[in-house]
Design brief:
Strand order of the largest sheet: 7-2-1-9-10-11
Radius of gyration: 24 Å
Helix content: 40-55%
Strand content: 5-15%
Number of domains: 1
Low-confidence stretches: none
Order of helices and strands: HHHEHEHEHEEHEHHEHEHEHHEHHEHHHH
Shape: globular
Number of strands: 11
Amino acid sequence: MLYSAAPMPTPRKTQLRKPFQKARRVDPRPITGRESARDLLEHAFGAYVGRQVRTAHELMRRSIAEDCSIFLTLSGAMTPAGLHQSCLIPLIENGIVSALTTTGANLYHDAHRIIGHAIREVNPNAGDLQLRLARVIRIYDLGFWEEALLDTDRLFSALMQGPDYQRSMTTPQFHALLGRDLARMEKALGVTQPSLLAVCWKTGVPIFVGAVQDGSIFLNAVKLRRLFPDRFKFAIDINDDVYAMAALQHYARHEVGSGRLAIWILGGGVPKNYTLQGEPLLDQILFVPTTGFDIDVQFCVDPVDNGALSSCPAGEGHTWGKVSVEAVEAGSIYVHTDVTAVFPWLTHALLSDPKMKRKPKRLLDSLDDARSFLDKAVAKNRGELLKTLRFPGAAPKHDPESVVR
């Protein structure tokens, strides 16, 4: 005898509508011209990319209100565009940004202005063959003389020959030395708009560069090593650099402020993943428990369906252990836009509110403490970590202890 299952009750229309009835109404006020940037973001950005921008503003305010250690990543030609002058330096000086990960190119191009070279607007369709003949370098609709590159090469070549540079170091240590030396130059020259390197050094913000070898500052280190193989001892310790990023996140989670972490991603690329990968390094590789970043705000023009790391949204990042459950559910947004189109608005909205300013966390000063703090956690896991050094069929007589001793 066959029995049919009882039909499932169909939810009533009123039950289905309850969540919808609680949602925010799209009913913006007429713009009068007297509104602040914050007013506009809260009331005139109700849909589509505009709503994404509004949500980003809300999450950025949350990052500060919850006393998060904020890791900001920066990719693309943002210093030639002046975004550091208009937005990043004010955010850093007001204690909002705790750590910075960027490209070597952004730090290199920032120095052009310090030594007297101008970056100007150009017509991107004017003709690249003529620009090359005139020795004008183009970055889409920006241009500068080729001499800006040559003079900047000379600047960094001279600085890196200093005695403090003749050792192995991490990228935050390297950029702190450059920031210190540029700050001294700026003071001597009477520079009114300081460099990103100098401001980060003054405020204790560590600067990481995940692909330091992919940038002109390091190309000059290559030249110096060829010229002075016995005297030039500068080197970047990549192993220590990756460890330092994870250590800083672990330290910030347990020893700094509220213990919460936020990441603001401007663009994507290497800076994004170099920062995010600190979390799976802790949890997956070193067996040091962590939950991922608590707030994740990203601005990027890439579509999210192309498999690229730059466009990976928070949910996808969560599957890798980079972002927390909380961030996926109520603490993340992917703003599908050009950073330069919206970030000045957001910076103005934040800095117009005195409550959004705070004392710098000076994580640069805590690098050694952070490393020691993580060393202790890793040491506790030594026995379990040694078990991960074997694989069936691979060097069966290999003694893992001899490698890590």
